[in-house]
Amino acid sequence: MTNAITVTTLNNQIKSLLESHYTALWVKGEVSRVTYHTSGHLYFSLKDENSTISCVMFKGNNKSLKFRLEEGMSVVCFGGLSVFTPRGSYQLNIMTVEPEGSGALALAFEQLKKKLEQKGYFDESNKKELPRFPKTISLVTSKTGAALQDMLRVAKKRYPLVRFILIDTLVQGEGSAKQIAKNIQVADTLQTDIIIVARGGGSQEDLWSFNEEIVADAIYQAQTPVISAIGHEIDFLISDFVADKRASTPSNAIEIALPDKTELFMSIDQMLNSLYDICYNKLANKKTKLEHLQTLFKENSYKQKLSNQKELLSNLKENLLSAIRFKLSQKKALLDTLKENYAQNDPKLNIKTGFAQIIKDGKKIKLEELKNGDVFEAVDQSTKILAKVLKS
Asked: SS in 3 state form for the chain?
C-alpha cells in the first residue's frame, strides 16, 4: 500500500482540480436556507428537482447585491467552485446574483417598496402640508448639476422673494446614498420651510441612490416637508413615494413649492376690486341710513318742531284772520243792511212838513193809540219834543 495518499492530499488535489476547472460558472436554481450572517457574509443553497449545492457570498460581494435573497426565489448565480479542505466539502463562491426573469434593480425596488409600504412610509396621513408662502428652502442637490440652475431660473421668474440654502450633495455613485441621507438630516436642522431633494435625469443605475432605504428613512423622519424631484416625469423612485410631495422634475418642484407672482398679482387685483365693491356698497348703505337718520333728526329736532309750531301758529293766525275777516265781512254786510234799513226807516225821511212821528217807549205808534197821561216823543226831521197826553 505504498501508493496510498492522505485524506488531506486527496482533498487538496480535488480542490486544485475543481477550483482550476470551475472558475466561472452561471448556475440557476431555487434559493433555500438563506442566512444573512452578522459578519456580512451570505449563506444559502441552490436547488432544483434533484440536487442541492451550498453557496456563499462573502461580504465584499454581498455589499453590491441590490435586492435581498428570499426563500423560494429563482435566481441565476455567477461564481466558481471552492473546496473547504478540512471537511472535504465544496460550495459555490458567488460573485453576483440576478433574479431569473427580472432585473436585480427592479426586484430590489419592489422589495423595498413593499417593505416601506408595510411600515406606513407611504401613508397619506403622514404627509406634511407645504406652506403656501415659503421664505426659505433647502436644496439637497449637486452644485454642479443642471437641476440646480433649472430650479433657480424658475424661482427667479416665479417668486423671487424666496431664499435658498444649497447643500452640495453627491447624487450618484458610491457613497451617494449615505451623503443624501445625511444632508437631508442636516437640512432638517436649518428650520427652513421646505426641503427639495433633486437631481436631473439619468439611467436606473444613476438614480438608484434615491431607491435606498437609508434615504427613505431620512425623508420619512424629517420634520420639514420634503419634495422629491428626481429625474424625469416617467421616473418613479422610492423617495417619491416617501416624500410629502413628488415632483416630476426639479423645475416642477419649484412650481409646486412656490406661488406664481403673476397669479398673486391677479389675485390681489381681484381682492382689491372685491374690497372696493364691498366698501362702496357699505358706504352707500351707510350713506342711505345716514340720510334717513338726518331726515328723521330734522323732522324730530327742536328746531323743526319749533318751525312746525311756527308754521302751525302762522296757519292758525292766518285762519283766525281769515275767520275774523269773514266775520267782519258778515257783520259789515249785516251792518250795511241795517244801515240801509235804518236809512229807509229814518223818521227824518218819512216825516213830511207839518207832520211828526209819535214815539212811545222807543217804538213808533199811531196817534190814536195814545191815552190820557201817556208820555211820548214827537219827532220830525229837525225837532224832537217830549209831551204828555192831557186829554185824548
From this structure: CCCCCCHHHHHHHHHHHHHHHCCCEEEEEEEEEEEECCCCCEEEEEECCCCEEEEEECHHHHCCCCCCCCCCCEEEEEEEEEEECCCCEEEEEEEEEEECCCCHHHHHHHHHHHHHHHCCCCCHHHCCCCCCCCCEEEEEECCCCHHHHHHHHHHHHHCCCCEEEEEECCCCCCCHHHHHHHHHHHHHCCCCCEEEEEECCCCCCCCHHHHCHHHHHHHHHCCCCEEEEECCCCCCCHHHHHCCEECCCHHHHHHHHCCCHHHHHHHHHHHHHHHHHHHHHHHHHHHHHHHHHHHHHHHHCHHHHHHHHHHHHHHHHHHHHHHHHHHHHHHHHHHHHHHHHHHHCCHHHHCCCCCCEEEECCEEECHHHCCCCCEEEEECCCCEEEEECCCC
